[in-house]
């Protein structure tokens, strides 16, 4: 069974669509405790991620992912344009030396409003202030700000905290989780969500499963109706 095309390709002009994306080990980890995550999935998993980026308007990550990986978040493995990078760093704790703030590609650094006063740039990135009550971004306001810039097809690429906050806010239309056949024995979890008391209380998701090289791609419909 072939890997499904990017869900972004079927999204009508002007419609917002948020896709969560993560690669996790069999024991549910996205990185070791030291933050090492290269690579959980295989080459086909990386290719799939780059294909998703090439059809997204924006690729969004949390501050800890930039701190741990210094990623470029480009489409260098496939044809197609690189999306705008969006980094969530409420306290503006990241220095300016990371690739996404230096390589000249488009990057938006989202910080709490009080950290955006009188500053517009962070390296080559544009700084934007977002409401952040109690240290947690208002993700609806964030997506509205992105949409005002024409960024409606948003790929949330991790890490686990960032992805989980979108999930908990009910803002993910779909999830593409790669399940890789390795056991890390500990490390950073893919999901950090409020616990349920019994399995019966958990939401049972609808997924389709595709081979992805030596891994599995779990294609999970959340908000949208399955075609
Ligand atoms: N396997 C994979 O597919 C994959 C993908 C991406 C990353 N990773 C790995 O994952 C690890 C990092 O993941 P992580 O879960 O620890 O962290 P993360 O999600 O990368 O970053 C979390 C941090 O980003 C900020 N943030 C994110 N969402 C926010 C929100 N809604 N409101 C306010 N602040 C928000 C906060 O910064 P503050 O702490 O400053 O408040 C938060 O602590 C790295 O080791 C990386 O290598 C793996």
Descriptive account of the structure:
With 227 residues, the chain is an alpha/beta fold. It has a single domain (16-221), classed as 3-Layer(aba) Sandwich (Dihydrofolate Reductase, subunit A), CATH 3.40.430. Helix content is 17%, strand content 28%. The chain has helices spanning 43-54, 63-69, 139-148, 160-168; strands at residues 17-25, 29-31, 58-62, 84-88, 107-112, 121-122, 125-130, 153-156, 174-180, 188-189, 206-212, 215-221. It has a 10-stranded mixed β-sheet, with helices on both faces. Strands 2-10 form a two-stranded antiparallel ribbon. The protein is globular. The model has no long low-confidence stretch (mean pLDDT 96). NADP nicotinamide-adenine-dinucleotide phosphate (NAP) binds next to strand 1, strand 2, strand 3, helix 2 and helix 4.
CATH 4th-level superfamily:
Dihydrofolate Reductase, subunit A
Major β-sheet, in short?
10 strands, mixed
Question: Overall pLDDT, averaged?
Answer: 96
Overall geometric form: globular
Q: Could you give the order of the helices and strands?
A: EEHEHEEEEHEHEEEE
CATH class: Alpha Beta
The distinct ligands, each listed once, are:
NADP nicotinamide-adenine-dinucleotide phosphate
Number of helix segments? 4
Report the radius of gyration as a whole number of Å.
17 Å
Secondary-structure arrangement, i.e. CATH architecture: 3-Layer(aba) Sandwich
Helix content: 10-25%
Beta-strand content bin: 25-35%
Distance between the termini: 17 Å
Overall number of strands: 12
């Amino acid at each position: 069974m072939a890997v499904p095309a990017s869900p972004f390709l079927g999204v009508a002009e002007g419609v917002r669509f948020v896709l969560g994306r993560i690669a996790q080990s069999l024991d549910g980890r996205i990185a070791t405790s030291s933050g090492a995550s290269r690579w959980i999935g295989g080459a086909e998993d990386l290719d799939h991620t780059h294909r998703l980026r090439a059809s997204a308007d924006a690729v969004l990550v949390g501050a800890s992912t930039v701190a741990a990986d210094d990623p470029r978040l480009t489409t260098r493995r496939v044809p197609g344009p690189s999306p705008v990078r969006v980094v969530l760093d409420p306290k503006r704790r990241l220095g300016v030396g990371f690739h996404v703030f230096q390589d000249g590609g488009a990057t938006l650094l989202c910080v709490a409003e009080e950290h955006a006063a009188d500053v517009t740039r962070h390296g080559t990135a544009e700084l934007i202030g977002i409401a952040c009550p109690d240290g947690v971004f208002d993700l609806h306001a964030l997506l509205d700000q992105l949409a005002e810039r024409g960024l409606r097809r948003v790929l949330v690429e991790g890490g686990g905290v960032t992805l989980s906050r979108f999930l908990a806010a009910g803002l993910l239309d779909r999830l593409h989780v790669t399940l890789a056949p390795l056991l890390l024995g500990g490390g950073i979890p893919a999901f950090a969500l409020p616990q349920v008391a019994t399995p019966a209380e958990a939401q049972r998701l609808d997924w389709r499963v595709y081979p992805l090289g030596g891994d599995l791609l779990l294609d999970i419909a959340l908000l949208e109706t399955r075609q």
